[in-house]
Design brief:
This protein is 87% helix and 0% strand. The protein contains 3 helices and no strands. Residues 38-68 form a coiled coil.
Length: 68
């Protein structure tokens, strides 16, 4: 992947991650869940965990490309 592809991928994944977190937050508010429960859901959500890992991997790849 070139730098342009890496930047676009990071942007798209970050955007999706933020939307998912917002959706979880809004649903939690509608259900009047305590804040600690909402945070627990965010921290333990498999999809969000995978998105964070993907962003970390892209960042590592981006750093290795910039050193070349």
């Amino acid at each position: 992947m070139d730098q342009q592809d890496l930047k676009l991928s990071k942007k798209l994944i970050s955007s999706y991650k933020k939307r998912l977190e917002k959706e979880i937050f809004e649903r939690s508010m509608k259900l009047k869940m305590p804040q600690n429960k909402f945070e627990e859901i965010i921290n333990n959500n498999n999809e969000l965990i995978n998105l964070k890992k993907a962003l970390e991997d892209l960042e590592t790849e981006s750093e290795s490309h910039s050193k070349v």
